[in-house]
Amino acid sequence: MLELYSHPNSTYTHRVRIALIFKSIDFTINHVALDKLENRKKPFLAINPYAKVPVLKDGDFILSESSAILRYLEEAYPDTKKLIPLDTKARATMNQFANQCETEFCFPGSFVYFAKRFIKEEKWDVPRMKEYSKKIGRHLEIFDSYLADKSYVIGNEFGFVEVMYAPFIFNIGYLDVEIPIHFKAWMDRVLSHDSVKQVLGSN
Ligand SMILES: N[C@@H](CCC(=O)N[C@@H](CS)C(=O)NCC(=O)O)C(=O)O
């Protein structure tokens, strides 16, 4: 049985849990107590020297990085529901959106979210938070025009890009951004998807 090193509040781990549920792949959770810095201790560092969850263990194969894990699941479990298109150009476009998800949304978004949730206001790096909010606003505008005539990012089906975004759009209320209309409609579709609700609804 697959083992997932996980923490209940970890957005990156949520991606993997959504994919596993979407694909109906059984797995067990190995809880890593990030709050007690268990991830910085030797036994976990032997599994991931970067001290981060998620980590997937499939037999003696160990893999970290949520997007790498999603791609592995797609290839290693080919008889499950697909998240990644077979067509070369569709897959290339998917990879473009997946990379932009990380650089234009998740990274700046996590900085603002983390500050607002866990750091006292007097210690906020306000200029940086403003710069990042502006960056996210620009991203949402570009993404919004792409979504104007689409229900989902690739092939009008829930897939890899939606899984990448889901845990992060769940927390979008923490960001100082206007949410454009097509993005909002897409976001609502993603958050009401059964596999997403099963993971994010339970936290
Ligand atoms: N790029 C990694 C990011 C993973 C990550 O940042 N995980 C956070 C939890 S959401 C973590 O383990 N943080 C613990 C730490 O940095 O000490 C991925 O996609 O899996």
Strand content: 5-15%
Sheet with most strands:
4 strands, mixed
Please report the first level of CATH classification, the CATH class of the largest domain: Mainly Alpha
Low-confidence stretches: none
Reading the helices and strands in chain order gives: EHEHEEHHHHHH
CATH architecture of the largest domain: Up-down Bundle
Query: What's the helix count?
Result: 8
Total E-strand runs: 4
Structural class: alpha+beta
Mean pLDDT: 96
**Gross geometry:** globular
Rg over C-alpha atoms, rounded to the nearest angstrom: 17 Å
| Ligands bound, unique | glutathione
Whole-Å distance between the termini? 23 Å
Output the strand order for the largest sheet. Answer: 2-1-3-4
Helical percent range? 40-55%
Number of domains: 2
CATH fold naming of the largest domain? Glutathione S-transferase Yfyf (Class Pi), Chain A, domain 2
Pfam families: GST_C (PF00043), GST_N_3 (PF13417)
Domain GST N-terminal: 1-81
Domain GST C-terminal: 87-203
GO molecular function, one term: glutathione transferase activity
